[in-house]
# Entry
Amino acid sequence: MQDTVPAAFKNSGAPVTPPATESTPAELYAKWQGMTIGETANTPLPQLLTLLGVTVEEVEPDALPIGIHARFGGHIGDAEIWLSRSLPQVEREPIIREFLTTITPDPATRTKGPSRYRVTKQITATVECYDWCIEPHHEHVGNVEDLIHGSTSITLELPGQGGPVAVLHARIGVDPFGTTEAERNPHIVVDDEQSLYILPLMQSVELADEVSEFAVALRNMASKAAGR
# Structure
């Protein structure tokens, strides 16, 4: 759930738009309809979202149907807008405002596709893969740009009274159509369940060395604490 998009996001702990006032949907709608075009255009987007009871969430592109990059669901006083993480920042606020102009007291769902369409033809393609990749590419339907390669994950767990707690995951990855060279080449994806980090292979080796040093220091610390 930043540039043109307000801080009204539900994404990785980011702030969420406060709930609308105690007004009924009908009262909110009457107030909304009573605003002039100029008032609407000059009102900051976070203020409009709060007034109308709408939250905005940034999601991964595959959370939306193929060909859709924004979705509205709900009604005035209780609605949510999903924006694809891949949607350029400059396009986000206009789409949000466009959704807001159609909001009513009645529940509804609306979607937004690309602003420019082109005729496409579905084809079957063969994707060169890696020996370590476990992604089901044979089941993929949609844009070839959405294909990524990923290996099985390894997990670092912290012992706990209720059982092991995962604190770090790592896997090999390649995004052939990634925006950076690091993404397009084999790399290591490190996930601490809060954020994802893409590490080139040399940086991954450096991280492994640091983890090894940490393990030795931790073992020595435990030995000192035990009096050995």
The beta strands are 54-59, 70-75, 78-84, 108-112, 149-150, 154-158, 165-174, 187-191, 196-200. The CA atoms of residues 6 and 45 lie 7 Å apart. The longest strand covers residues 165-174. The two ends are 50 Å apart (CA to CA).
